[in-house]
TrEMBL record:
<keyword id="KW-0285">Flavoprotein</keyword>
<protein>
    <submittedName>
        <fullName>NAD(P)/FAD-dependent oxidoreductase</fullName>
    </submittedName>
</protein>
<keyword id="KW-0521">NADP</keyword>
<dbReference type="InterPro" id="IPR002937">
    <property type="entry name" value="Amino_oxidase"/>
</dbReference>
<keyword id="KW-0274">FAD</keyword>
<feature type="domain" description="Amine oxidase">
    <location>
        <begin position="15"/>
        <end position="394"/>
    </location>
</feature>
<keyword id="KW-0732">Signal</keyword>
<dbReference type="GO" id="GO:0016491">
    <property type="term" value="F:oxidoreductase activity"/>
</dbReference>
<dbReference type="InterPro" id="IPR052206">
    <property type="entry name" value="Retinol_saturase"/>
</dbReference>
<dbReference type="InterPro" id="IPR036188">
    <property type="entry name" value="FAD/NAD-bd_sf"/>
</dbReference>
<keyword id="KW-0520">NAD</keyword>
<dbReference type="Pfam" id="PF01593">
    <property type="entry name" value="Amino_oxidase"/>
</dbReference>
């Protein structure tokens, strides 16, 4: 039987980073991926003349060589930055909401963002400045927590990051109210909320402010060859460092030691047993504990079942046979809402018939050459906050998914004035059923576990040590301690990889 210091299950964003970190720490590592390509959601696919990005709208906090963000610093440390051809996204977002008759285009750059907000909402400057000051302290506190593998010194947290500690248990709306931010400014500031899949009465301010700051402070980036380019760069780096990679191979069981219940090996789908005492699982805990382990501590089962599934994904991909200029598509990143009352909007997103929200990207506005000359490529994403797709019968499935797609097109045309329906050359649709089938996520969840008061970013980071119940098993990815999103998944892999290196070294 083959023996490894650690096995990483799943070549998603978190698993890829964890594998590199383990190898850099001197471990002998096997990465196991059930698909024939790496990346999980970080991939691309072709339809006709178009190569579509599967999931990434933009990667935040990357920055440039002269103004590097935390993600770029991480990629530099991992040795993958220069393997990827990067491009910069031109603007932050355009947010349109019908109830408030809101239509605002916001730039990257903190000062530029503050000035534009003051233009839209005179008198908002002071509160928005305070928001970004607080958000930057949150970023620094997170960097400190990551640097010490979550073993933070409470005296350091209070003395250096006191405001981070004070706002840690509050929601987005509670803190913005305390900052006395005008309502219209709150509406514009909260545009990104659908990226995290929780409404702003529930969503942790720490989590949301961290994300907004990472976008606005250093802008957003995109690999020219889609997120698949990032995934391939990581595989190349893993092999450079001597790691082994198995594609088309499913890890079906995590084997445990009868004495302490800890990890003793991994069983592959061809019957091969890998001996190891350490696993980093880029797999949802519901799947690990429900299918992959025979004996699971009751506390782990309770913890998983207590958590709430975040959004179930639906994405429509369009290849259009006219240029963005001809179609009237002006921006790269759109948020289209019925209302900026996020609680009300969240409720509407529970049912297929009521959900009109979309986060839509026209990649040509950032990278004109992403599709053939005279064409345009778009992708439209929404979330469903309950498992309403389970109520769709097989007979009605195609009709339902096409109905949602048609509504998305109508809504985009009505809200932006663009005309796209008559120029569709290619269309592809992914529903929650698609994500459940290809990614193995229950109910087609694409955002892991929802960020809630008791289960937000700060509680998860602070409870990492206490939450580690099974010797040798750690998690990475959108369901782990950093919650959902590309950068969060990368950072979770960094944390779990370094923690596992420490575990291995302590065992001698």
């Amino acid at each position: 039987m083959k023996k490894y210091d650690a096995v990483v299950i799943g070549a998603g964003n978190g698993g890829l980073v964890a594998a590199v970190r383990l190898l850099q720490g001197g471990a002998k590592v096997l990465l196991v991926e059930q698909h024939n390509l790496p990346g999980g959601f970080a991939t691309s696919f072709r339809r006709g003349r178009f190569e579509f990005e599967a999931s990434l709208h933009e990667l935040n906090d990357f920055g440039t060589k002269d103004n590097a963000g935390d993600v770029r610093v991480l990629f530099d440390e991992l040795g993958v930055t220069d393997k990827i051809d990067w491009l910069e996204i031109p603007e932050a977002y355009r947010v349109i909401s019908r109830e408030e008759k809101l239509d605002a285009v916001m730039p990257f750059g903190v000062e530029e963002f503050i000035n534009k907000m003051e233009h839209y909402v005179p008198g908002s400057r002071d509160s928005v400045v305070k928001f970004f000051d607080l958000a930057e302290e949150i970023r620094l506190a997170q960097a400190y927590s990551s640097a010490v593998n979550g073993k933070t010194d409470s005296s350091v947290m209070v003395s250096k990051y006191g405001n981070f500690v004070r706002c840690g248990s509050y929601s987005v709306n509670e803190v913005l109210k305390t900052l006395k931010m005008p309502k219209k400014a709150v509406d514009i500031m909260n545009a990104y909320w659908c990226y995290l899949g929780a409404h702003c009465d529930d969503l942790s301010f720490v989590h949301y402010a961290s994300m907004v700051n990472r976008y606005i402070k250093r802008g957003a980036s995109m690999p020219k060859s889609r997120s698949h380019e990032i995934s391939l760069a990581f595989i190349e780096r893993i092999r450079e460092l001597g790691g082994d990679v198995l594609f088309n191979t499913e890890a079906v069981k995590i084997l445990t030691d009868e004495k302490d219940g800890g990890v003793s090996g991994v069983l592959l789908d061809d019957g091969t047993e890998i001996v190891t005492r350490h696993v980093v699982a880029n797999v949802m805990p519901h799947v690990v504990f429900g299918r992959m382990m025979d004996k699971v501590p009751l506390d782990e089962i309770k913890a998983a079942n207590t958590r709430k599934f975040a959004g179930r994904g639906y994405t429509m991909f369009l290849g259009l046979n006219k240029s963005a200029d001809e179609l009237g598509i002006e921006n790269h990143n759109y948020f289209l809402y019925d209302t900026m009352d996020t609680v009300k909007q969240y409720e509407m997103m529970k049912k297929i018939k009521d959900n009109s929200v979309q986060a839509t990207v026209c990649l040509n506005r950032a990278y004109p050459e992403c599709s053939p000359e005279g064409t345009t490529m778009m992708y439209f994403t929404t979330l469903f906050m309950e498992d309403d797709w389970a109520n769709v019968t097989p007979r009605d499935y195609v009709k339902t998914k096409e109905s949602v797609a048609s509504r998305m097109i109508d809504r985009f045309e009505q809200d932006t004035g663009a005309r796209i329906r008559d120029s569709i050359e290619e269309i592809s649709i992914a529903t929650p059923m698609t994500y459940a089938r290809y990614c193995g996520h229950p109910e087609g969840v694409i955002y892991g576990y929802e960020s809630q008061y008791w289960d937000g970013l700060m509680p998860r980071l602070q409870m990492m040590a206490e939450d580690h119940k099974i010797r040798g098993l750690r998690f990475a990815g959108g369901h782990a301690m950093r919650l959902s999103g590309y950068s969060s998944a990368y950072f979770s892999g960094d944390i779990s990889g370094r923690q596992t290196v420490g575990d291995i070294k302590r065992e001698g």
